[in-house]
Amino acid sequence: MSAPTPWFIRARLKTRQLMLLTAICDEGNIHRAAEVLNMSQPAASKLLKDLEDMLGVSLFERQPRGMRPNWYGETMIRHARIALSSFGKPARKSTRSSPDFPGT
């Protein structure tokens, strides 16, 4: 019997969700985060709700004038920033050569 698939593979996180998490953290407000990402506030709310439903936890404390990440949110935001920053980095070249791919 094979091991169960990890949650992060089953979750199929979207880049847009990761960007939304970091924008909400930076802006402190879902409306401003939506503006920064050029999306409507209802679309941002749905994206966040889908992510929270997928994870089974709330990521932010809703406050009268904005949102603040809870422990789960801070953890996801930290990982989202790492993932998003890695998208901008070129793949590392292999140090050994391959006969099929010279120079790699």
Describe this structure in words.
The chain has 5 helices and 2 strands, in the order ααααββα. It is mostly helical and 104 residues long. It has one domain: Winged helix-like DNA-binding domain superfamily/Winged helix DNA-binding domain (Arc Repressor Mutant, subunit A), CATH 1.10.10. It has a two-stranded antiparallel ribbon with strand order 1-2. α2 crosses α3. The longest helix is centred in the C-terminal third of the chain and has 17 residues, at 71-87. The protein starts with 6 loop residues before the first helix and ends in a 17-residue tail after the last helix. The model has no long low-confidence stretch (mean pLDDT 84).
Key descriptive features of the protein:
104 residues; mainly alpha; Arc Repressor Mutant, subunit A; two-stranded antiparallel sheet; 2 strands; 55% helix; globular
Task: Give the secondary structure arrangement, pairings included.
Blueprint: H1 7-11, H2 15-27, H3 30-36, H4 41-55, E1 60-63, E2 66-69, H5 71-87
Antiparallel strand pairs: 1-2
Helix pairs in contact: 2-3, 2-4, 2-5, 3-4
Low-confidence stretches: none
Helix count equals: 5
Mean pLDDT over all positions: 84
What gyration radius follows from the Cα positions, in whole Å?
Answer: 18 Å
**Using DSSP, what is the number of strands?**
2
CATH topology: Arc Repressor Mutant, subunit A
Fraction of helical residues: 40-55%
Global shape: globular
- Fourth-level CATH superfamily: Winged helix-like DNA-binding domain superfamily/Winged helix DNA-binding domain
**CATH architecture annotation name:** Orthogonal Bundle
Tell me, what is the CATH class?
Answer: Mainly Alpha
Run of helices and strands: HHHHEEH
What percentage of the residues does DSSP assign to strands (E)? 5-15%
Task: Determine the N-to-C terminus distance.
Answer: 37 Å
Structural class: mainly alpha
